[in-house]
Each structure stands twice: as C-alpha cells, then as structure tokens.
Amino acid sequence: MRRGAVEFQRRTAPLLKPTLSRLADTQSPQTLFITCGDARIVPNIITTSGPGDLFTVRNIGNLVPDHQTAAEDASVGAAVEFAVGVLKVREVVVCGHSSCGAMKALLDGAPHDAPALRSWLRHAEASRARAAARPPVRIEGRPLPSEVDQLALHNVLEQLDRLRAYPTVARAESRGELDLVGMYFDVGDAQVHLYDARTGLFRRLGR
Ligand SMILES: [Zn+2]
Q1: How far is the CA of 134 from the centre of ligand 1 (A)?
Q2: For residue 11, how far is its CA from the centre of ligand 1 (angstroms)?
Q3: What is the 40 CA–ligand 1 centroid distance (Å)?
Q4: Mind listing the domains of the chain with CATH numbers?
Q5: Cα 100 to averaged position of ligand 1 atoms, centre (Å)
Q6: How far is the CA of 147 from the centre of ligand 1 (A)?
Q7: Which residues, by Cβ under 5 Å, contact ligand 1, an ion?
Q8: Rounded to two decimals, what is the model's pTM?
C-alpha cells in the first residue's frame, strides 16, 4: 500500500490534479454503485470512470438491508437516502460477481467464530429463498453452471427489489428520475453483464 501511495503521488497525482481541483468543494456523481468488498472488483475500472463519478457502497455480498429493518444496519440505507435524495444520482447499480465468498458462505454456512459475518449474511437469506423458488436467471439464454454464481445473479435482482422498498428510491423512480441497474461481473472472463428487465436476461456487453 505505501509503495503504491508513493507511486500515486509521483506519477498519477499530477495528472489528476486538474480534475480533482474542480471537484474540491463538492461532488455531483451520476451513479450510486453498490458492490461487494471483493478485492477483484474495481468499480472505476469496469465502468471506465474516475473521481467524482461513482458514489460507492461496498459490503460483503453487495447487500441492501430490508427497508423494514434497515435501522438495525443503517449504513447502506443512509448511503441510499443521501445519494438518491440529496445528491440526486440518476442511477443505482447493484453489481454482483462470480465466485463471491458471501454467496459461498450463504450456501455452505459462515464460520461459527464469525458472529458479525453470520449476522450480516441474514440480509441475503431472501436471495437464497428466491434462488430456490424461481427458475435460474440466465445470461444470454443460458443458466450459469455454478450454484454460487447462479445465487449471485438472484442476489442482484433481490437487492434491486429491496431498493425499491426505500421510499426515496420509489419516489425518484416513479418520477422517471432514477434507473435501477443490475450488473454481474465475471471475474475470470473480465466480462460485464447488465440485466435487461424487458427480457429477464443478463446480457454480455460487447467487446
Ligand atoms: Zn463478493
């Protein structure tokens, strides 16, 4: 980390300074980007964006607590209300990914000596129930062979539904001021997929 920070100051900071000095007093991002803490997901790289573009929330499993109980884990709800209600972002993205440790823990059980992790993952129980009750979510017409990755797709859709239960989100969406976007990143393939609500499929973005 330290070597990287020194390198940033030496090489990148001079290039970014004009952009950052314009942003010095305020931010006006277009997008609230909710994704997993997984180190392989780099939001700015997979969206070709930079400083000021993405208001980013990261947590294990890219989860949005149910609105009814959001006060128990208010961090995500606060970010949603701030980004949508105050910053007036135009889109909210929920980005899941392949081989997600949270999805694995949901299927296999979290470690017993990790009570906070077990407690957090309860926010994904609805995703597991959704995956069990509904047909597979497909990418370009094909279901994913991995149960973990299949759960990750259902999990993205479940979190979008949950976002719509937040009054701030529902109001902005009903006024046509906000788009909700489902994204899935296949790490090994370096491939972004976007959910198409019209067809109910995730689509590979072209190269
Ligand atoms: Zn993950």
Answers
A1: 22
A2: 31
A3: 9
A4: 29-204 (3.40.1050.10)
A5: 4
A6: 14
A7: 36, 38, 100, 102
A8: 0.96
Ligand 1 centre to CA of 92 (Å) is 18
Residue indicated by tokens 């149960």? 147
Ligand 1 centroid–CA 164 distance in Å is: 22
In tens digits, the chain (207 residues) has pLDDT values of 999 999 999 999 999 999 999 999 999 999 999 999 999 999 999 999 999 999 999 999 999 999 988 778 899 999 999 999 999 999 999 999 999 999 999 999 888 899 999 999 999 999 999 999 999 999 988 888 899 999 999 999 999 999 999 999 999 999 999 999 999 999 999 999 999 999 999 999 996
